[in-house]
Each structure stands twice: as structure tokens, then as C-alpha cells.
Amino acid sequence: MQENLKLVIITGMSGAGKTVAIQSFEDMGFFCIDNMPPSLIPKFWELIKESGKITKIALVVDLRSRSFFEEIQNMLIDIENTNFIDTQVLFLDASDEELVSRYKETRRTHPMAMDGLVTEGIRKERAILEDLKTKATMVIDTTTLTPRQLREKIIAAFKTSETQGFRIELVSFGFKYGLPIDADIVMDVRFLPNPHYIQDLRPLTGMDQPVYDYVMSFPETEEFYQRFLGLLQTIMPGYVKEGKSSLTVAIGCTGGQHRSVALTERVGHALEKDYKVNITHRDKDKRKETVNRS
Questions:
Q1: Inter-residue contact 205 to 196 (CB < 8 Å)
Q2: Burial code of 9-39, b = ≥16 C-beta within 10 A, e = fewer?
Q3: All residues at 6 or more sequence positions from 79 whose CB lies less than 8 Å from its CB, including other chains
Q4: pLDDT digits (tens), the chain, 294 positions
Q5: N or C: which end of the chain has fewer CB within 10 A?
Q6: Pairwise CA distance, residues 38 & 81, whole Å
Q7: CB neighbours of 250 closer than 8 A, spacing ≥ 6?
Q8: SS3 of 255, please?
Q9: H/E/C letters for each residue in 195-250?
Q10: What's the rounded Cα separation, in Å, for the pair 152 and 273?
Q11: Cα(195)–Cα(165) distance, rounded to whole angstroms?
Q12: In angstroms, what CA-CA distances link 57 with 52, 105, 173, 264?
């Protein structure tokens, strides 16, 4: 039997924090869509139901007119009549004064005050949203909240048993093949002795014990490892506290075959004691592939 879909509709006042909200749901593993027209949503449900692969969905819905609002009301009624969608409505609000201040800071135009004052746009939007707000499952007033505090509230309220926690992506790579474009931290270990110049070790990788032992046999390797691991252990709690869902750490040597692989393995296994760690060796077999092609 197919598990019910979990649907969260994110709506509320323009400028109240919907961007932070949708990013928070993305980090919790929700399939997120920003501003899908309500008229397309029924077809979307059918596609989702047929696929059977998506179980958590978050939709950001902005209001631009009274007719748009009526479409959303009809959509909610249709959803309530289904037996496979569990729906929650998150409404984000803030004081008029705070919303005006945010629009002044960003110099954006309020969507309902294209040719008028921001305060007039806010007044119109409040009138349209009044009924929807009363039907919301949860209302969050973001007037005094920082983005981080809003994120914490949302995660606390909507996290599920399947919600992914903080994870570390450790990637070894070769500088000759380019930097990983998604790396948050890059460490260069080309200063360490290179097994490439040892004939018996050249065809092996840092996953092989002889290469691993060779790389780790030098005092400079041990000093680097201890200092680098200590640095990562020091900064990780800060990333978790800031609400980051993952951190990508890339360790590189010349070809990504020996030194970076060995160090990535050692660092990764040490961090596994406290965090979820995924280890990827991007270029470990690049040299072998090149030799085979030639």
C-alpha cells in the first residue's frame, strides 16, 4: 500500500520569509516547487501519485490577485477530498512595519503595489490572505526572527523520521583534472611525498594498503592529519548550529590517485564517529582509464 504524500503549502505575506522556508524544506528532503500556478497542481498530483517515488512535497504559493486566491481555495478543497495526501498549510506573517523595512532594505517592489506605496500593497495582500490565514495549520510571525531562527522553527515543526541530518561529503580529487565545483573547503596535499615515484606503488591507489602505509609513514603526514582533523572537528559544530545540511570537503593531490585518496579515507573514518560521512574518490581511476584507452 502506497504511503500517503506529505504536502506542506507555504504561503503568507510577501517578504515574510518564504525563501528561507523553502530552503529549509529542501534541506529536510522535501521535493520543493516555488510558485506553481494553482491550475497546474491537480495534474501535478496525478503525476506524483503515479510515480510513487516522492513522499514529501513543499509548495510555495504566492498570491497576486483575488482570482489567484480563489484558485488556491479550490485547490485546497480538492486536496481535502483525496485519500492519499496529508496536507499542512504554513502561513508566514510579519508586522507591517517590519515588511516595509525589509522592502526598503532590498529595494524590491511589492507585487501588489507595482505603481503605488509598499504600505498599500501590504494592505491589499492582508485583505486577500485573511481567510487563508485562519485555515493555516501553523502561523509563524517572523517579525523578530532571524533567518536562522525561522529555519530552526520550521525544522522543529516539520522534521520527520526520514529527515536527513547534517552530513559531510568528503571528496578526493586530482588538481590536474580541476577543482570540484561544489567544494566548501579545499585542502591541497601535494606537499606530501608522492607514491607515484615508487615503481611498485605507481599502479595502485590510496585504497591499497601499501600506498596507504607509505603515505602515512612520514612525520609530516601525521602532523598534517592531526591538525587538519582537529580543524574540521572544531568547525563542524558551527556549521551544524548555523543550520547547514551538508558540508563538502575536497582533498586534492596531483592526480587524485594516491595521497588524496589515502588522506580522505583516514579523515572520513575518523569523522564517522560523530557525523554521517559520504566518501567519494572522484579521480582515483582516471590514470588507469587513460592507460586503457591508449
A1: no
A2: bbbbbbbbbbebbbebbebbebbbeeeeebe
A3: 7, 45, 85, 87
A4: 446 678 888 988 888 889 899 988 888 888 888 877 766 777 777 777 777 677 788 888 876 545 566 666 666 666 655 666 778 889 999 898 998 888 877 767 777 666 668 888 888 888 888 888 888 889 999 999 888 888 888 888 887 655 556 889 999 999 999 999 889 999 999 999 999 999 999 999 999 999 999 999 999 999 999 999 999 999 998 888 776 778 899 999 999 999 999 999 999 999 999 898 999 999 998 876 665 554
A5: N
A6: 16
A7: 171, 172, 173, 179, 180, 183, 185, 186, 187
A8: coil
A9: HHHCCCCCCCCCCCHHHHHHHHCCHHHHHHHHHHHHHHHHHHHHHHHCCCCEEEEE
A10: 25
A11: 37
A12: 12, 31, 35, 35
- Whose grid coordinates read 502561523? 139
The three grid cell numbers given for residue 201, joined into one nine-digit string? 606503488
205: its cell numbers: 591507489
- The set of cell numbers assigned to 289 is 582509464
Side chain identity at residue 184, one-letter code: D
Task: Specify the amino acid at residue 189.
Answer: V
